[in-house]
């Protein structure tokens, strides 16, 4: 059935669940041939309304350089609205109204629109009008199907780039270069190694620039608790990222990852860090801006976070001449029996993407607009900007001038807002790092030579001390793991009428309340409190939710193997 009856507003609002994360695939590709067509047939002026469940502080109403060029090439101007702080509260209201923007990026809540009959099937539109979109997704077109029961294509996956192979690692255990240098670049493999480094430096340097030194801080502000507090529990115990679940690769059975005994021991370590005074007492009360300000002061020795989670603070440190207080990153594990699975391949995970709504008056024109952005010309424009202004061709290679690169690094917010470079990528079809265009150049600007060129002097010194060229060289390689046949589980759509959505909301509230309590409790009470936490999850319906999610995982495997 292509469309189901519209869910009532009450049902939709009740079943709204927020699931946020990123996935990292691996694989190298090169796109052959030229684009046809390079532009839509018509470039007459047209405004498309667009809503994104992500926030976007840099949006400039397409008055940036890239935006103006896109309008020139397509005639399209986006009238865009972005969620505040990534909140998805408006989505169920849109669904309840039955009146939608032309384009919607709903993140993990596309099911609300699909179940309400709010998204159109894009299959025929792509086949007839979008050769570049077909080229981008290529062999993975089968993974765009919605479900076993409904094989329509309702969204063009955009959060995960096609053919993406990350050239570098972004997290999760971070430690200041200055700490490593003073300690003679010690071996860092386990949380014990990490703790000892922080403790040793802290005891020698109780203050930095006249302020109290903070050995380790976390960011538990809203959804960021997942990135800085709970996700590292599976990362440090050898499990790959499947959102709130751990999935057994042999049986495809899903369970909440907190139930793993290994993760209990990780949280015990955090509890120990708190009890010994090495964990920042403000970790669970500080807001993100306070967290960033604290890091920007240069007095925080360690962070458990992804690089993007404190990028503003890193830029501030560099601007203040404290680049030695920026951070190195390591694949720290609870002990040496496991290895960090950050680079375990999920293949192409499809997932979160943009859909054309049933309110759109000209779906053909919209798909042609999206097809232009998917073209080689469009991809280069969105990633690199304008030739002669933001990059030059030198001996057949795209090269970013030093002054432009300096602005990208040290004045990124203003640079992005003015130029639009990188601004349009997350919500439109795109190639990932490692994919080359027909000229042999990378589509993105994140490639090895560019990455290493931008390392700070302290980063280069640290990497050399550990006998590697890039951070990723410290991590276990992709071929050390089996590819996950379900992709990334957090991208699997959950039907709106599933009990999973209702139960997950209860689970989320329990986790965000109990995990901080467990970390901050007296160590003598840790076991009883953790066991009580697991029982509370089960009392809230976790076991039934796990069974239902297991079925979704198995259906995904079946669908992709058709």
Count of DSSP helices?
21
Within CATH, the superfamily of the largest domain carries the name Periplasmic binding protein-like II
- CATH fold title of the largest domain: D-Maltodextrin-Binding Protein, domain 2
Q: In CATH's first tier, which class of the largest domain applies?
A: Alpha Beta
Number of DSSP E strands? 17
Strand order of the largest sheet: 3-2-4-14-5
Our Rg estimate from Cα atoms comes to 24 Å
Task: Indicate the proportion of strand residues.
Answer: 5-15%
Overall, the morphology is globular
Number of domains: 2
The secondary-structure class comes to alpha/beta
What do the pLDDT scores average to?
90
Low-pLDDT stretches are: 1-28, 32-39
Please describe the biggest sheet, giving its number of strands, its sense, and whether it closes into a barrel: 5 strands, mixed
Commentary on this structure:
The protein is α/β, with parallel strands linked by helices and 562 residues long. It has 2 domains: 25-165 and 348-450, Periplasmic binding protein-like II (D-Maltodextrin-Binding Protein, domain 2, 3-Layer(aba) Sandwich); 170-342 and 498-562, Periplasmic binding protein-like II (D-Maltodextrin-Binding Protein, domain 2, 3-Layer(aba) Sandwich), CATH 3.40.190. It has 21 helices and 17 strands. The strands form 6 sheets. A 5-stranded mixed sheet has the order 3-2-4-14-5. A 4-stranded mixed sheet has the order 9-12-6-13, sandwiched between helices. The chain has a two-stranded parallel sheet with strand order 1-17. Helix 19 (499-520) runs antiparallel to helix 20 (526-539). The chain is globular, with a radius of gyration of 24 Å. The two termini are 18 Å apart.
